[in-house]
UniProtKB/TrEMBL annotation:
Keywords: Oxidoreductase, Thiamine pyrophosphate, Transit peptide. This is Pyruvate dehydrogenase E1 subunit alpha 1a. The keyword Glycoprotein does not apply. CDD domains: TPP_E1_PDC_ADC_BCADC. It comes from Oreochromis niloticus (Nile tilapia). One of its GO terms (molecular function) is pyruvate dehydrogenase (acetyl-transferring) activity. SUPFAM superfamilies: Thiamin diphosphate-binding fold (THDP-binding). Its cofactor is thiamine diphosphate. It comes from the Eukaryota. One of its GO terms (biological process) is pyruvate decarboxylation to acetyl-CoA.
Length: 338
């Protein structure tokens, strides 16, 4: 930044974004949107942090420092960042088990997330939740039971009957575990699955598309029109989980093509550079800062102590007197403290 001052940069620019497909709506989100320099830098830093955090998690898992289930979010960063850009932290958010990115955008720190992945006392769930069970205020993260999400159709019905202000979001990353959507679904128009609920199909690789669609959906809900469904067309670079190499049901060439043509971070970076909203050097500085934050968090996550056994059953209930919990046999008793 020494060679150029902030006055040299464009403070905001207007972009044309991809039009959303709509269902049971007379109009859709705007296709001409404004991005400020500050917003762009914030989105870039957040997506890079999420990307680097997931790549570090991959590394720690392969070193057997992270154990158990671990589902990575790299490739889908524009979904979480775009959604958060158009809702409030006081809004309630529930997600499935690919939850590390949302834990970060909801207010969790990289240190807390990494320490949770390694099962340490300083983790965001005190080391007892792991990859699939992370929580922040107004964030009910990591529903790890796939079947539980099958109740969605009953939920659609109730939300429509009661005109609830709910945005239902399908992050369609093109594969359900190892099965492509084309092989699994007779109709891949997931944004129409609400049937009696309006829907949007959105380019989930473009943070600006997701931001504008979410803004439209939030306005719809807050104005008393009831629920709305968004399908974000996105892509995960890793396999379903760390136990899935991700290349037995798709080719490496397919993954590389998405990386080269549709990567959400590269797309935002190119927009900012081509419109004089940032310099290459400035973005590199952010990359360096992000890498250091991730390395510091990984160091903490591998040196912080594990939670002691006597804390195993704590926090089962909220604001209740301490109680005894049965252990692995009827004679083993553990204490639970709220």
């Amino acid at each position: 930044m020494s060679a150029r001052t902030y006055a040299d940069f464009t403070t905001q620019a207007t972009f044309e974004i991809k039009k959303c497909d709509v269902f049971k709506l007379d109009e859709g989100p705007a296709t001409q949107v404004v991005l400020t320099r500050d917003e762009g830098l914030q989105y870039y830093r957040t997506m890079q942090t999420m990307r680097r955090m997931e790549l570090k998690a991959d590394q720690l898992y392969k070193q057997k420092i992270i154990r158990g289930f671990c589902h990575l979010y790299d490739g889908q960063e524009a979904c979480a960042v775009g959604i958060e850009a158009s809702i409030n932290l006081s809004d309630h958010l529930i997600t499935a088990y690919r939850a590390h990115g949302y834990t970060y955008t909801r207010g969790g720190t990289v240190k807390e997330i990494m320490a949770e992945l390694t099962g340490r006392r300083g983790g965001i769930a005190k080391g007892k939740g792991g990859s699939m069970h992370m929580y922040c205020k107004h964030f009910y993260g990591g529903n790890g039971i796939v079947g539980a999400q099958g109740q969605i159709f009953e939920t659609y019905n109730m939300a429509a009957l009661w005109k609830l202000p709910v945005i239902f979001i399908c992050e369609n990353n093109r594969y359900g575990m190892g099965t492509s959507v084309e092989r699994a679904a007779a109709s891949t128009d997931y944004f129409k699955r609400g049937e009696f609920i309006p829907g949007l199909r959105v380019d989930g690789m473009d943070v600006l598309c997701v931001r504008e669609a979410t803004r439209f959906a939030a306005d719809h809900c807050r104005s008393g029109k009831g629920p709305i469904l968004m399908e974000l067309q996105t892509y995960r670079y890793h396999g379903h989980s760390m136990s899935d190499p991700g290349v037995s049901y798709r080719t490496r060439e397919e993954i590389q093509e998405v990386r080269s043509k549709s990567d959400p971070i590269s797309m935002l970076k190119d927009r900012m550079l081509s419109n004089n909203m940032a310099s290459v050097e400035e973005l590199k500085e952010i990359d360096v800062e992000v890498r250091k934050e991730i390395e510091d968090a990984a160091q903490f996550a591998t040196t912080d102590p594990e939670p002691p056994l006597e804390e195993l059953c704590n926090h089962i209930f909220c604001d209740m007197p301490s109680l005894e919990v049965r252990g692995t046999n009827p004679w083993a008793k553990l204490k639970s403290v709220s």
